[in-house]
């Protein structure tokens, strides 16, 4: 029996709600993610991808409808409960890494545990273990500005993994990386997904990056417009299909 880890029902997000500038960015999204899936979210710029990922991962609060993570509805939690829930369940990877410049890499990685009741020794053990896997041991005392983009993103991944999350939300995680660092990051995510069973939801505009996923959703104008499963396809065949979906959608947009 597949285990549902994330579900949205009639998810709607209206920015500037109850003002003259109301803008409905997500209309009525019904979507389910099962444990161990690796979802890629694609769509044109401004279609609602970031809004979607933020609203399914506690970063932003939707206007109406429901979002359940592991059966818990986000809206019913207090700010404190959301903080604890995040620490227990979620890891985040962002395009611009979101590292604090005034903190060392070590302190940045430790950040998600700062509110949790985890001993300093345990934090230290986890950080050294992850830093070794991610090959950044020699950077732990450095500050973000002393490190390259690839090193920063590997540090950001350590931060995302420090709490052993069940779910990783990634918004354009390769957006600021060159192709070598991008493919290394994708290999890390695939390994986490396949070997550790971490469920991943990742926004990307790059069909090659999306071809590492097990399922693609294509968002347009705040709706899920189409969906594609990798199934038995090779990565290359899946990539070709993703390119086709993107160009078919682009043609439709141009024709409108
Ligand atoms: P994408 O990630 O697909 O580029 P976004 O989710 O960032 O799209 O944005 C979807 C739509 O919502 C866009 O039209 C954008 O202008 C609008 N939007 C995003 N954030 C805000 C905000 N904070 N206030 C008002 N409108 C917003």
CATH topology: Rossmann fold
DSSP helix count?
8
In whole angstroms, how far apart are the ends?
Answer: 42 Å
Bound compounds:
adenosine-5'-diphosphate
Largest sheet: 6 strands, mixed
Strand runs, count: 10
SS-based class? alpha/beta
- Beta-strand percentage range: 25-35%
Report on this structure:
The chain is an alpha/beta fold. The protein has a single domain, classed as Rossmann fold, CATH 3.40.50. The strands form 2 sheets. Strands 6-7-8-3-9-10 form a 6-stranded mixed beta sheet, with helices on both faces. A hairpin with a 2-residue loop joins β9 and β10. It is globular, with a radius of gyration of 18 Å. The N and C termini lie far apart (42 Å). The structure holds adenosine-5'-diphosphate. Adenosine-5'-diphosphate binds next to β2 and α1. The site of adenosine-5'-diphosphate has 12 residues, from β2 and α1.
List strands and helices in order, with pairings:
Layout: E1 4-15, E2 23-34, E3 38-42, H1 49-55, E4 64-69, E5 72-73, H2 79-89, E6 90-94, H3 105-110, H4 120-133, H5 149-161, E7 167-171, H6 179-196, E8 199-203, H7 207-210, E9 215-220, E10 223-229, H8 235-255
Parallel strand pairs: 3-8, 3-9, 6-7, 7-8
Antiparallel strand pairs: 1-2, 1-4, 4-5, 9-10
The structure holds adenosine-5'-diphosphate.
Adenosine-5'-diphosphate (ADP) is lined by residues 15-16, 23, 25, 43, 45-51.
């Amino acid at each position: 029996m597949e285990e549902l880890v994330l579900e949205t029902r009639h998810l709607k997000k209206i920015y500037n709600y109850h003002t003259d500038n109301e803008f409905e960015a997500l209309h009525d999204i019904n979507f389910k993610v099962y444990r161990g899936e690796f979802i890629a979210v694609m769509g044109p710029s401004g279609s609602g991808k970031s809004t979607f990922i933020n609203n399914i991962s506690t970063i932003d609060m939707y206007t109406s409808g429901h979002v359940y993570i592991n059966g818990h509805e986000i809206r019913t939690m207090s700010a404190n409960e959301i903080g604890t829930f995040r620490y227990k369940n979620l890891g985040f990877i962002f395009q611009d890494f979101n590292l604090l410049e005034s903190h060392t890499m070590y302190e940045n990685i430790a950040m998600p545990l700062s509110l949790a009741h985890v001993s300093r020794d345990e934090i230290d053990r986890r950080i050294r273990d992850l830093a070794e896997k991610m090959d950044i041991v020699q950077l732990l005392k450095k500050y973000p500005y002393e490190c390259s983009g690839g090193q920063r993103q590997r540090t950001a991944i350590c931060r995302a993994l420090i709490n052993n999350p069940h779910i990783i939300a990634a918004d354009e995680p390769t957006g600021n990386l060159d192709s070598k660092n991008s493919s290394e990051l994708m290999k890390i995510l695939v390994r986490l997904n396949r070997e550790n069973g971490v469920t991943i939801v990742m926004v990307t505009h790059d069909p090659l990056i999306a071809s590492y996923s097990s399922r693609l959703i294509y968002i347009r104008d705040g709706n899920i417009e189409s969906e594609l499963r990798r199934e038995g396809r090779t990565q290359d065949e899946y990539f070709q299909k993703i390119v086709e979906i993107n160009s078919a959608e682009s043609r439709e947009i141009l024709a409108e």
